[in-house]
Design brief:
single chain, alpha+beta, FAD/NAD(P)-binding domain, Elongation Factor Tu (Ef-tu), domain 3, 2 domains, seven-stranded mixed beta sheet, seven-stranded antiparallel beta sheet, 13 helices, binds flavin-adenine dinucleotide
């Protein structure tokens, strides 16, 4: 697969990036009999698939809909998601014999290892004659207008093609090979870029808040986290640097610097009514003792210290009860920032969808140039949506490139 290739080889399609979207697109173009080359600078294909979902790859979501994606144009993703649905993904996995299971919120994971997913993509590519060149540094891309072609000038030679598919992903986790090359190419060819931001990323806390919460590191609990009008019912985790867990990763995609996120620490209980009831039954009991039956003890100790001097239930005034309810159902947390691209699962923003056809993923003003996957300004929620976008957009471009 990694054989030395000669200078100036012509292909029908060259795909830049051997990740989920790139390999999907290459396999589909290969099935149509196209001569396809995939070029990637990494030493291994699809590294992000390998580490995804804790090694089990959350490869799609049964409830995928356009509402699970962020983009300047909320409608753009609909066409691709309709043409290659979550059920098509499932059929593809089942055809290859990958066993799977469903977790909460319709998330589908491999029973075995994410390695099976990469093996499926590589075998399909190989079956359809796709040439994959890894550890191949790309110097630059030229457009040869006269021949309606692109040239990929790389350390392994110069390759030309009629269709160039950019599938180089987002900026998240540079250690795994992420670069801004796709964004740079978009600019080179005159496409607009939507500003990028780390997303699905833990929050950092600083100062007094960090000092007081860092002793809670390791505590995880079910919450509803909300930010900018969006809310997510998932687990939250206190870390040494701040807060994380699925609920926090989800709201991070909506968070703007300087704003406050709110956490409902008791999403299944009306704490005001509960305390009123308990006041009747066991008025002498300390608030802290009652709360420790509902929440982790260390969190309760911190919370009482910060917000409510410990009192017996019978001493709680109406105002106290309102304050308690406010602080437990909408605990305001103002992050100092996020952990950034170093640990972010995805990148918000990217190539402006206004410059692309939603049917083919081709640049409207540059015939033969396609963008697929995370490099495009389409970002999924946590839960298998980002891979579904990679499969769907890769599939669509693969039918036309
Ligand atoms: C830790 C982690 C866990 C995740 N878990 C899940 C999950 O369970 N479910 C889910 O749906 N999503 C998950 N995601 C998100 C998902 O991995 C991405 O959205 C998806 O991989 C994007 O696919 P892509 O093909 O567009 O880009 P990528 O998978 O990032 O592939 C891009 C490829 O381009 C190559 N490349 C980059 N720059 C260059 C260059 N200059 N020259 C040559 N090659 C280049 C890279 O080496 C890479 O192989 C996770 C992400 C992370 C970081």
């Amino acid at each position: 697969m990694d054989a030395k290739i000669n200078d100036h080889i012509g292909y029908d399609v060259i795909v830049l990036g051997a990740g989920a979207a790139g390999l999907m697109c290459a396999a589909e173009a290969g099935k149509r009999g196209k001569r396809v080359l995939v070029v990637d600078h990494a030493e291994k294909a699809a590294k992000k698939i390998l580490i995804s979902g804790g090694g089990r790859c959350n490869f799609t979501n049964l409830y995928t809909s356009a509402d699970d994606f962020l983009s300047q144009n909320a409608h753009f993703c609909k066409s691709a998601l309709a043409r290659f649905t979550q059920y098509d993904t499932l059929a593809m996995f089942e055809d290859y014999g990958i066993a799977w299971h469903e977790r909460e919120h319709g998330q589908l994971f491999c029973d075995g290892s994410a390695k099976q997913v990469v093996a499926m993509l590589l075998e399909t590519c190989s079956k359809h004659g796709v040439n994959i060149q890894l550890q191949c540094h790309i110097d630059r891309i030229d457009r040869v207008v006269k021949h309606e072609a692109f040239e990929v000038i790389s350390e392994k030679g110069v390759f030309s093609c009629a269709s160039l598919v950019v599938a180089t992903g987002g900026l998240s986790i540079p250690k795994m090979g992420a670069t801004g090359f796709g964004h740079q190419l978009a600019r080179q060819f005159g496409l607009n870029m939507i500003a990028t931001e780390a997303a699905l990323v833990p929050f950092r806390l600083t100062g007094k808040l960090h000092e007081s919460l860092k002793s809670l590191a390791g505590i995880s609990l079910p919450v509803i986290a909300s930010c900018a009008g969006k809310e997510f019912r998932e687990a939250m985790l206190f870390t040494h640097r701040g807060i994380s867990g699925p609920a926090i990763l989800q709201v991070s995609s909506y968070w703007q610097a300087g704003t406050t996120a709110h956490i409902n620490l008791l999403p299944d209980l009306d704490i005001r009514s509960y305390l009123l009831e308990q006041r009747q039954v066991r008025g002498k009991q300390q608030l802290r003792t009652v709360l420790a039956e509902l929440l982790p003890k260390r969190l309760v100790a911190h919370w009482c210290e910060a917000y409510m001097p410990d009192k017996a239930l019978q001493q709680l005034s109406e105002m106290d009860l309102n304050d308690i309810a406010q602080q437990l159902h909408a605990w305001p947390l103002k992050p100092a920032g996020t952990e950034g691209y170093r640990t972010a699962e995805v990148t918000l923003g990217g190539v402006d969808t206004a410059c692309l056809s939603s049917k083919t993923m081709q640049a409207r003003d540059v015939p033969g140039l396609y963008f697929v996957g995370e490099v495009v300004d389409v970002t999924g929620h946590l839960g298998g949506f980002n891979f579904q976008w990679a499969w769907a957009s890769g599939y669509c471009a693969g039918q036309f490139a």
